[in-house]
């Protein structure tokens, strides 16, 4: 396969990356850039564990080709670690025991952060919709919902 150079902004830094037409965004993020917060669960877009923001929209990186990101901006959890709203979310996830095995946690935090920037007082239904695409096998979601609600009340973005 012929590789081509794709230029994308990842977590605020420009990257020129050689990609094949079949390279997925998740593979570039994890394997070429070492961004390990992006996990692969199913590889078919059903679990949402690989969620990242692309041009401000939450997407499953296992379903997006890297070449589709040419000239675009992607943000992973690593890119938000110094954000005050993300720090609140992380602290509340710890306090409420919302991160049990931790496999879904990066994607849950990404979806939660995305919700918090749009709504400072989301209802339980809004929270459930925001995280509905991400599967968690450990918490039963109650701790996650509580963490998100508390974080939004504490200041959102």
What does this structure look like?
With about 160 residues, the protein is an alpha+beta fold. The protein folds into 2 domains: about 5-80, Roll (Ubiquitin-like (UB roll)), CATH 3.10.20.30; about 80-155, [2Fe-2S]-binding domain (DNA polymerase, domain 1). It has helices at about 25-30, 85-95, 105-115, 125-130, 140-155; strands spanning about 5-10, 15-20, 50-55, 55-60, 75. β1 and β2 (about 15-20) form a beta hairpin. The longest helix has 12 residues, at about 85-95. The protein is elongated, with a radius of gyration of 16 Å. The model has no long low-confidence stretch (mean pLDDT about 95).
Topology:
Blueprint: E1 4-10, E2 13-19, H1 25-32, E3 51-54, E4 57-60, E5 73-75, H2 84-95, H3 105-116, H4 124-131, H5 142-153
Parallel strand pairs: 1-5
Antiparallel strand pairs: 1-2, 3-4, 3-5
Helix pairs in contact: 2-3, 2-5, 3-4, 3-5
Short description:
With 157 residues, this protein is α+β, with helices and mostly antiparallel strands. It has helices at residues 25-32, 84-95, 105-116, 124-131, 142-153, and strands at 4-10, 13-19, 51-54, 57-60, 73-75. A 5-stranded mixed β-sheet has the order 2-1-5-3-4, sandwiched between helices.
Number of domains: 2
Tally of DSSP β-strands: 5
For the record, the CATH class of the largest domain is: Alpha Beta
Residue share in helix: 25-40%
Radius of gyration: 16 Å
Which secondary-structure class do the elements indicate? Answer: alpha+beta
Question: What spatial form do the alpha-carbon principal axes imply?
Answer: elongated
**Average pLDDT number:** 94
Binned strand content: 15-25%
According to CATH, the homologous superfamily of the largest domain is Beta-grasp domain
How far apart the termini lie comes to 43 Å
Major sheet details: 5 strands, mixed
Could you say what the CATH topology of the largest domain is called?
Ubiquitin-like (UB roll)
Question: Which residues sit in consecutive blocks of at least 5 with pLDDT less than 50?
Answer: none
In CATH terms, what is the architecture of the largest domain? Roll
H/E series, N to C? EEHEEEHHHH
Helical segment count: 5
The strand order across the widest sheet is 2-1-5-3-4
């Amino acid at each position: 396969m012929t590789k081509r150079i794709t230029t994308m902004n990842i977590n605020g830094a420009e990257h020129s990356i050689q990609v094949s037409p079949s390279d997925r965004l998740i593979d570039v993020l994890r394997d070429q850039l070492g961004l390990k917060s992006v996990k692969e669960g199913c590889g078919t877009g059903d679990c949402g564990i690989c969620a990242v923001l692309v041009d401000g929209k939450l997407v499953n990186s296992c379903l997006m080709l890297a070449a589709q990101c040419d000239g675009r901006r992607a943000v992973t959890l690593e890119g938000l670690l110094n954000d005050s709203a993300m720090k609140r979310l992380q602290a509340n996830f710890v306090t409420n025991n919302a991160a049990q095995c931790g496999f879904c946690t990066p994607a849950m935090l990404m979806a939660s952060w995305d919700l918090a920037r749009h709504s400072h007082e989301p209802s339980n239904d809004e929270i459930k919709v925001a995280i509905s695409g991400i599967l968690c096998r450990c918490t039963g979601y109650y701790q996650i919902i509580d963490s998100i609600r508390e974080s939004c009340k504490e200041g959102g973005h």
